[in-house]
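Q: Here's a chain of 257 amino acids. Please give me its 3D structure as tokens.
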Amino acid sequence: MGELNTENYKIFESYIKESGNTYAYSGDAAVKVSAKLFDIVKDMGLNPMITDEFKRGLVSLFNIEVINAPDMVNNRYIFAPNHVSDFDAIVLGLLIPNVRIVAKTDWTNNEKLKDFLNAHYNLYGLERTSMSSIKGMLNDAVNYFKSDDENKHYLLFSQGTISDFNNNSPERISSALQKISVKADVPIVNMFIEQVSIYHPTRIVFDEPRKFTSKDNFSEIWLERVKTMQNSLEPVGRRPVLSNKHSNNNKAGDMFF
């Protein structure tokens, strides 16, 4: 859609720099950034309240390239991407049709974000440190698939929060998706997503769908497959720029896990 050089784009660029180029935001910062996305899409001559037009705007803004996408219209999948940005769910929720995304309650319970999120997304709010919330999410996912025969999808970040999977130990990766896959009899599609960028291509790679059994070591398989997808790109997939918080949460039990 051509190079953007609007005042809204410059403000958005300043927000990125303020984050240390991490593309990670929370609280009031998330509200400001989300509102600015709408403004940028309007500057493109698109309507950000129409999901397809909002999608076209973000695909252009973040230079998104999709690789090996499965047939998401005629099948149902559980998606398992890595997590490197607070824009991951915003982008993937537009690229994957009819998907419910597990998101942190910091976003779903933010009253100032509800209009933005409800316009385009189906979210399940998860309190990551609460076992009852995690159990509720597992039940929600299984019931979501078993309630009807509609072709729909579920997405969960197995890392729990933003981190670089290249530094994660297997213990750091949740096996919740494996349990959902077994109980709902729905295949998992592992994914590699580069940290979104307004300066570089943002490549999103889909793995081949796979059904898991209770005997599989999901955490090790997930790490191996995502690294394989990252390294299959030419040039090799970019490593994310992370805050100190998100750079130091690599093992179970580490601060910020």
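Q: Can you summarize the key feature?
A: The CA atoms of residues 44 and 57 lie 7 Å apart.
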